[in-house]
Amino acid sequence: MTKYILIGVVIALMVFAVASGRLSGASFGTWIAAMLTLAIFSFLYKDNPIYKFAEHIFIGLSAGYFVALEYWNVFVPNLWNPLLESFRTVSPSGLMLLVPFALGLLLFARFFPKIAWLSRWSMAAMIGSYAGLAIIGALQGDLLAQIRANMIPFLSPGSLTGLKAAAGGNAFFFAILEVLRNPLIVIGLLVTLVYFFFSREHKGGLGAVSRVGVWFLMISFGASFGYTVMSRVSLLIGRLHFLMSDWLGIIH
Amino acid sequence: MAERKTEERSLLTKLSQIDRRILFLLIFACATIPLLLGAGLRMSVTAPVQGLYDAIDGLEAGSYVWLAADYDPGSKPELSPMNYAIVEHLFRKDIKVISGSLWAPAPPLAQAVFDEMAPRHGKQYGVDYVNLGFKEGREAVMVSIAEDLRRTFPEDHSGTPLDSIPMLEGISNLQDVEMIICVSAGYPGIKEWIQQIATRYDTAIGGGVTAVSGPEMYPYIQSGQLVGLLSGMKGAAEYEQLVERPGLGIAGMVAQSSVHVMVVIFIIFANIVYFLEKRRAR
Amino acid sequence: MRTEIPVAIAFVAGMLMVVSLFVPHPFIAEPAAVMRSWAIIITAFAYVLGVANIARISLHTVKKRTTDWQYKGALVVALVAMAGVGVSRGIQTGGLFDWAYLNMYVPMQATMFSLLAFFIASAAYRAFRARSVEATLLLVVAVVVMLGRVPVGEKLWPGLPAFTEWIMEVPNMAAKRGIMIGAALGAISTGLKMILGIERSYLGSD
Predict the structure, then answer these.
(1) Whether the predicted interface score ipTM is above 0.85
(2) Is the C-alpha dihedral spanning A121, A139, B71, C153 positive or negative?
(3) Among the four A200, B53, B73, B224, which has the fewest Cβ within 10 Å?
C-alpha cells in the first residue's frame, strides 16, 4: 500500500511539473542527480537492488574522488613539485621530502605479509604527530580554558539587581533564570564531574550528588536529541528543496 | 466487557507498533507541503548568531579572514546557507576572504558560493577572495599554516602558485588574518581550530556548525573562545535575516517547524499510548 | 627493529609537537614544522592505502563471485572512473570530474544523510518513553528545544526562544563542559601513552 502511495506522490509531482511546462528547464545533470536522489530514498520503503546499486556507486565515486583530491591538492604541490625542484637545484633540505615519500610508500607494505611490519614506521610517524597535537589541543583549548572559564562569581550581582527591578510575568521568570545562571553553571559542572570521576560506589551523599549530575547530563542529552532532530530534518528539507526546485521547478 | 478490553488493547498495541512507513509519510508530508506553499517566517535572533554578526561587522574594510570550509555534501543544506550568508556579509564589508578546507569534498562547495556571490558584489578572484582548496593533515595543517602558509599551501585549488596571487602578498601565515571563520561539519573542524589556534595564537574564531554539534559548542561560547556561532539551518536562517539575504535557511523554516511539531506529536501520542497500555496491563 | 623503531619514531614525532608549544625557538620549531609537513604527506598516502584496500576487497568479491559481487563490480568501475578522470583530466570547476561530483556524489551523500530524518522521527515515536525521572527530563527538554529552536515555538510563547537559549547556556553547557573536561583528560592520557610507547595497539600484532 505504502509503495503505491509513494509512487503516486512522485508521479503526481512529475505530472504537475510537466503540465506546467517546467521540466524542460532541468539539465541532464540535474536529471541524473534527481534519479540518484530517488534511488537512495527508495531505501525508505525497504532495502532494494536500486538502492544497493546507488550506494555502491557512491562508495566508489567518493573513494575515487578522494584519490584525485589527494593527488592534486597534496601529492603534486606538497611532494612532487618541491621534490622535482630540489632535484633540479640539488637542495638537500628539499630532498628531505624523500623521507615522507618513502614512509608513505611503506604503508603499502601492509599488503605483503612478510614485510607488513615495515608499515609500522609510517604509522608511528602519523600517530605520534597527531597524538602530540591532540595533547596540546586538549590541554590548552579544552582543559585549562574550560576550567578557567568556570571560575565565575557564584552569584552575579547584576542578576540580583535585575530581579528587584523585574515586573511580574515573563520578566520576573527570566530574572529568576538569570539569578540561577551562575550557581547552576558552577554546581552543574561539579556534580557532572562527580558523576564521571568518582569510581567509588555511588551511595549516600556521593550517590545523591551524582544523581543530580545525571539530571544535568539528561538535560544536555535532551538538548542534543532536539538538535539532532533539527539537523536531520534540515538535511531532508535540503533534498526536497532540490527535487522541487532544481529538478521539478515547482518552487523557486 | 472483556471483549471490549481485548479490542482496546489490540488497538493500543497496533498503535504502538504502527508501520514506520506511515510515520515516514507523515514526515514527508510535513516537510513537503510548507515548501510547496513557500511561506516564510520571521524569527528572533539568538545571542550566538548576533555574536558572529557583530564580530564580522566590527572588522575593518580590507582586513583578512580565513574562511575554513570544513564540510561535505552530507551537511550541505545546513552549512551552505551559512556559507552564503557569511560571504555576503564579508563581501559587503569589503573584507578579503582566504578560503581553505580540511575536508576533501568541500572545495567545490566553497567555490560554488564564490561563483554566485562574487559577480553580485563585483569581487575578483585573487584580489578579493581566493580558494586554496583542500589539504590533508587536519591539526597538522592548522598549526602549520599558523606558522607558514606557503609551506603547506604552495598553490591554490586550481594550481596557481600563491606568490602570483596579488591579495596574498604580505600574508605569510594565519597570524596575519583578523579572524578564522569555520563552517564545520565535524572532525576536523571548529573544535580543532579552537584547540590548536585560538589560545596558542590568540586569534578570534567564529563560525557555524551542524545542529548535531551545536550543543557541545556552548562551553566555548561561554568561555569566549568562540566569538559567535550559527547552529544548523536555523542559525543560517537567523544570519540570512540579519544580512537581509533570504536563502534556503529562511525558506526551510516553516517546513522545519512543521516537522518538529509532528515529531513532538509523535512523542506525546506514543507516551499516551504507553501509559494507557501500562494502565490496562495493571 | 619491529617494535623499538616505531616506538622511537612516535616518541620523537609526538614530543616535537608538544615541546614546540613551549619552546618556540627555531631549534625546536623548525624540526616540528618539518615533521608536520611530513605528517601531511604520509596521511595522504594513508587515504590512498584505504582506497586501495576497498578496491582490493571488492575485486576479490568479484573474482570469487560471492554474494553481491555485481554491486562490488559497479563500485570498482565507479572508483576507477572517478579517480582516473580526476587524476588525468584535473579537478577544475566545469570539468567532467566536477560534473560527476556535483550531479552524482553530492545528491547521493546528501540524500543518505537526509534518510536519518525519517529514522530519528520513527525512533522518537517508538523509543522515547517517560519511564523514569531521568527519561522524563530528557524527553521534556528535547520537546522544549525542538519547539524553542524553530519560529513556530516563538508563536506559541514569545519567551520560548530565550528560555531554550537559557537551557543551552546553563544546564546543557555545564554538563557538556563536564564531558569536555573528562574527554580532554582522556585524550591527554591516551596521547601520552602513545608517545611514551605504553599504548602500542596501533602497531598491530606480529
Answers:
(1) yes
(2) positive
(3) A200
